[in-house]
Amino acid sequence: MSTIAKKFVYGIFNDDDVALNAVTALRSKGLKVKDVISPFPIHGMDEALGLKRTRLSICAFLYGITGTSLALWMMWYMNIWDWPMDIGGKPSFALYKNLPAFIPVTFESTVLCAAHGMVITFLLRSKILPGVEPNVIHPRQADDHFVMTIQATDDAQVAQIHNLLKEAGAIATKE
Amino acid sequence: MFWYSGLIPDFAAVRDRAVTKWRKRIYTILSFGWVGTAKNWQRFEEMSLVLAGLSTPLVLSVHSVVSMDFATSLVPGWHTTIFPPYFVAGAIFSGFAMVQTLLIITRKVLNMEDYITIYHIDMMNRIILITGSIVGVAYLTEFFIAWYSGVEYEQYAFINRATGPYWWAYWSMMTCNVITPQLFWSKKLRESVFATFIIAIFVNIGMWFERFVIIVTSLHRDYVPSSWTMFHPTWVEIGIFIGSLGLFFVPFLLFTRFFPVIAMSELKTIVKSSSSQAKKKHVISSSSINQQEH
To answer: Which of A125, B37, B69, B134 is the most exposed place for a label (fewest CB within 10 A)?
Structure first.
């Protein structure tokens, strides 16, 4: 372990293509590119940074299944088990026989659980919630500038990172 | 939720440009402290995709279920199996017309003619034309099925709609919803902001009359002639109607005043490619002008 805990160098870019190429170039030189903050999603950036695919859609699927099961269980309990009623000459004997009447509620419940579960997971995993103070490195990072974060292994490397960032097209660098 | 989660990055953009302390504080809370890191954007895009996929069938299911609330009743004029697709088409039709009405004013007032272009208005008018025609076919099908069913009450309900005491409501609906959108077959009218605005207003009126026809004319005469009556709105009902307009327009105007009206982060992804195209077009047109001058 180095004596300095973590030292970050930030490169400011004003073009998404330059930033994207810079990530590939700097990573191939062995630098630790931690992140790129951008005002809009840059396609190909996750591959360039070596990020894994997000599992958010798998979460959504699991929440959806939960919603489906909950709705079916609830309707089975209410309409078949606890209080079966004969409505319009259609008695409630078994879940599968009443399934057509249960489709709308099942669908709505699936969508409700999938959507809410996914958004809540997104907020928690991304650590964004009302009251969170944003980490604004450059005042125009949500406007039209791109901030690249590079982690230095030691003090000696910092100056080298500054130069490499400038070479790769950064308009400014910052510590 | 789909709406709000899409706004989060744009709130962050507003937050970072805020000059006063209070604005900064409010937009910080609204933006949930969003910073567009690569991982956040990756998750954000995945979430938008799944939410869009979930809400598309929801549009169909919501309007189908609403219409089935009518269709499961035994009231002549409501007891109709065509209601679900008819309501879905009607919802898209009236929704686009309402959006056109608001959009045309908003883009003028906020100077957004370069972002919401005539091309967009033309494409939306095509949707209005298609869904308006679907709604028209649904009206005719309802009539045909009423006759074909052989059910006397059903047949009377529809003849009463067109020729009874509420004929004016029925024919206003027919004119505004079926005939006026057919004007959009003309490209000139589709691309005219003024014509679009007028036709969209007609569609709004027509769709209001559609609800009036479905509810009032079906209810005012049913199986028992002794219960036949005419509908007279009370001051409470008129008040609720006017209030509902306020309930919509106050949040709408507040939104356009304080919130980003255009999905900025989404637009920024295409702004470079589209602006380089625009530049190219500009160069071509200015060079051709130069040639003419020479």
So the answer is: B69
